């Protein structure tokens, strides 16, 4: 986890250390004399490098994890730990976690940091996402050592977070430009992006309607041709929210020790179908739920009341008045909030909610699926393209 993890072999005996290094050496010798302590960091180090697609496979144990994190904190006084928030479009990534011979979010980010500081770094994410899953804000931490280029070996004061953000983004934009640093700040050397996280929020976008999906929405939502019953989906959410055994809502490959999770929030709401240049009329119509009319001398255009525009507006002059106007889809946003999730839990929850919305399942069916506690009980999983990691919340960085 630290910049000097996996250190070198022991050196021959030499003169007593200077006072400025004595504390570091005392810590080192203390760990060597107590094997039970020196072994603990190894277990966490292995866990951090575990390439399971969904890292959130364990409920965080604050006391135990915090103790272990402190034992493996960076002991190099010349390094500065940064907390970095990133956004990315997951379409062209093979997930967030670094993998050999694959383009991943962490791999691209580490390469950008190396170009900036001139040496390799290790980045640890708060949340691992699968291939095709996006992030509005994922959080990671990285240790950076600033070394003078004019005087190799001479340590310099750490870069300001704003400098790190701009410099790393400069190199990221030279890549595909589908990942960006949106925030950065100094954090203590024992702060861990994963273990300190208190809450994670995911969003899932569904677009309902028979019209083909817009090119601007490609790989950004799950297109459902059928109409969705919002009220029915909201009622199903009430069954699933809370602390349950979610065995029916985890993938067969999930390696979590326990299927028990607390789902603090699960809700569905209707939203604007697209963020791309919404018209004033459509925005107002969504808010007030009424027909709006625009008047000109001899022209009246009556807007359709349905969220799925049917192209049948009344036009007094010219049949091409509304030509070229795209039909809208009904957009539904599923919000899931918890401290941690099982592997594929959110996408399996969305798959069931979609089936409820189309009428293929009822609220009673959802209860039976939850109580079945079987990985084969749930509806087909929702595709990755509609899932967004929205936020990772921390109590404090101090």
TrEMBL record:
Keywords: Isomerase, tRNA processing. It comes from the Eukaryota. Residues 85-195, 236-395 form the Pseudouridine synthase I TruA alpha/beta domain. It catalyses: uridine(38/39/40) in tRNA = pseudouridine(38/39/40) in tRNA. InterPro entries: PsdUridine_synth_cat_dom_sf (IPR020103), PsdUridine_synth_TruA (IPR001406), PsdUridine_synth_TruA_a/b_dom (IPR020097), PsdUridine_synth_TruA_C (IPR020095), TruA/RsuA/RluB/E/F_N (IPR020094). The keyword Nucleotidyltransferase does not apply. The keyword NAD does not apply. It holds the Pfam family PseudoU_synth_1. Its EC number is 5.4.99.12. One of its GO terms (biological process) is tRNA pseudouridine synthesis. One of its GO terms (molecular function) is RNA binding. Residues 1-25 are annotated as: Disordered. Belongs to the tRNA pseudouridine synthase TruA family. This is tRNA pseudouridine synthase.
């Amino acid at each position: 986890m630290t910049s000097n993890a996996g250190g070198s072999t022991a050196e021959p005996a030499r003169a007593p250390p200077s006072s400025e290094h004595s504390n570091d050496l005392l810590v080192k010798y203390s760990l060597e004399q107590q094997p039970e302590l020196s072994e603990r960091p190894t277990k966490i180090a292995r866990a951090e490098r575990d390439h399971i697609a969904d890292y959130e496979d364990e409920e965080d144990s604050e006391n135990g994890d915090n103790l272990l994190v402190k034992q493996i904190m960076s002991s190099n006084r010349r390094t500065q730990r940064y907390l970095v928030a990133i956004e990315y479009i997951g379409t062209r990534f093979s997930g967030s976690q670094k993998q050999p011979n694959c383009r991943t979010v962490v791999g691209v980010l580490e390469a950008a940091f190396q170009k900036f500081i001139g040496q390799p770094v290790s980045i640890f994410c708060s949340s691992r996402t699968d291939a095709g899953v996006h992030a509005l804000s994922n959080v990671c931490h990285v240790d950076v050592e600033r070394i003078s280029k004019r005087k190799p070996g001479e340590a310099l004061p750490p870069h300001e977070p704003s400098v790190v953000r701009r410099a790393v983004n400069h190199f990221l934009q030279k890549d595909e430009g589908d990942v960006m640093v949106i925030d950065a700040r100094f954090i203590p050397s024992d702060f861990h992006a994963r273990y300190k996280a208190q809450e994670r929020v995911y969003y899932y976008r569904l677009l309902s309607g028979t019209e083909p999906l817009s090119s601007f929405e490609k790989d950004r939502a799950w297109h459902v041709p059928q109409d969705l019953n919002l009220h029915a989906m909201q009622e199903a959410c009430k069954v699933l929210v809370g602390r349950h055994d979610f065995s029916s809502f985890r993938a067969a490959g999930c390696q979590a020790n326990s299927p028990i999770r607390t789902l603090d929030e699960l809700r569905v709401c209707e939203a604007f179908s697209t963020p791309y240049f919404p018209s004033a009329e459509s925005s107002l119509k969504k808010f007030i739920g009424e027909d709006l009319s625009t008047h000109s001398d001899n022209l009246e255009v009556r807007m359709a009341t349905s969220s799925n525009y049917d192209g049948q507006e009344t036009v007094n002059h010219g049949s091409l008045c509304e030509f070229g106007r795209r039909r809208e889809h009904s957009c539904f946003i599923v919000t899931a909030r918890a401290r941690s999730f099982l592997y594929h839990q959110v996408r399996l929850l969305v798959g069931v909610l979609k089936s409820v919305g189309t009428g293929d399942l009822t609220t009673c069916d959802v209860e039976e699926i939850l109580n079945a506690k079987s990985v084969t009980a749930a509806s087909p999983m929702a595709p990755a393209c509609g899932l967004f990691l929205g936020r990772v919340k921390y109590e404090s960085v101090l």
